[in-house]
Amino acid sequence: MVNMVTLINKQLPPELVSLLRLAGETASQQGQKLCLVGGVVRDLLLERANLDLDLVVEGNAIELAQALVQTRPGKLTPHPRFGTAKIQWPEWSFDLATARSETYARPGALPTVKPGSINDDLFRRDFTINAMAVHLDPDHYGETLDLYGGREDLQSRLIRVLHNRSFTDDATRIWRALRYEQRLDCRLERNTHKLLTRDAIMLETISGDRIRHELELIFKEELPEKIIYRAEELGVLSQLHPALRGNSELAELYNRARNLTTPSPPPAALYLALLIYPLNSQELEKLIVRLRLPKPLAVTLRDTISIADRTEPLQDPVLTPSRIHQLLQGHAPLAINAGLLATDSSVARRHIRLYRDKLRYMRTTLTGDDLISMGIPAGPDLKTIMERLLAAKMDGEVTSRREEEGMVKGLLSSISGQ
Ligand code: ATP
User: Fold this and answer.
1) Does the Cβ of 130 fall within 6 Å of ligand 1?
2) Which of 33, 71, 229, 315 has a CA between 20 and 30 Å from the CA of residue 92?
């Protein structure tokens, strides 16, 4: 059996290991039990990099954190309401939580929390592979606490809930299951699979904010399309909106998005814009309400649909630059990129690119003040003339300040002649 101490020493930087040991000693002096828990234990066993250290204290996490910063000064942020504390050192940080037990008054409700044992704290967790702990007190340093067979499941690459009510208690675990399944190259254990498809409907009990948070986490994964594909397969995606698709076209779009933003990964909003691209505006409005999307994001997504609706006129090969500008102006830059990635027409792509890279930055040489000093009063006429001037410049009809002045004079006489 693999020794946890060996894995800790192999994978965590020595300074961090000494902080863990110090934390264990300090807890023990206070008569408290301290364990490393959750994702980091799982990742130590998988030998995957993870420096997000979650510690659980049987007793009082804030007291331990206070004592710890006395020995190794760091920035302490306590959250007395939750019995948690974060310690930030220049290079490392610890998240400490008081062990707790949770009960769910009704499906989807936030749990009722009370202080508990480390065992209670493991029982409230989502999957066996995330419900392991490693003791840090000096007498038991490195011993694993694995009450639900997490280690074996990790070896067999299985995602397994701890009990049959898990997804009804908290249906966000459904999306979490799919995320871990794809990220860690696991499969849903048979009963968990059955429970997940049975309980997919329980996603209705989850608030928009919490679902949105799960989606944001999915969009941070390396290949979100795999999770979305699986979500469609298992009837989870349709709970979000029946018209969403997790197919090979989406995978292709996500690939293009990664190529576009490389070396950075695409922003979550771009992934979301490409996901909602096939929706019509009523469908999008429903999703915006369901996910309680913040206004700027909602605007970007509406712009995305608006561009999708303009693909047809944008396919016209003889469009003038000013017409392209008219079709695309005012749309959010991210929506423009989504449209560029999602349209099948090479002509439309060429037009969108022209707008994105050139037209949207173009300005007339003459300013509004220049026009006013030429005798045009501030007001709607001035705006119209500026727009016509800009269109003429885009279409190559005027190419210098002098030509712009000539055009303004012509327009002026036609206005005054009306
Ligand atoms: P990741 O797994 O994404 O690398 P992580 O394991 O630290 O990160 P978090 O979302 O930060 O995951 O949650 C920390 C731990 O809290 C998880 O390992 C899991 O044990 C538990 N947890 C998180 N969300 C839930 C939930 N909805 N239900 C039960 N347990 C949860």
Assistant:
1) yes
2) 33
